[in-house]
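Memo to structure team: turn this sequence into structure tokens by end of day. - J.P.
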Amino acid sequence: MLDTHKINEISNKIKEVMSTSPLADVEKNLNALLKGAFTKMELVTREEFEVQAEVLRHTREKLEALEARLAELEGK
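Reply from structure team:
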């Protein structure tokens, strides 16, 4: 059976190497690059999209009602 002390020691060494290696910087830079790209693309969340779609649907309904009312008044 493996010694848990040795496993913890190896794990700690790996964490130490990872934190001092350029790999950590690469990950941070990649995250910043992706966030910048997504911001430039002006992406929205699904929730924001659904809210705006509902607002648009409601606005279209009002427009259709107003057009029908205008047609009724023009017909008189």
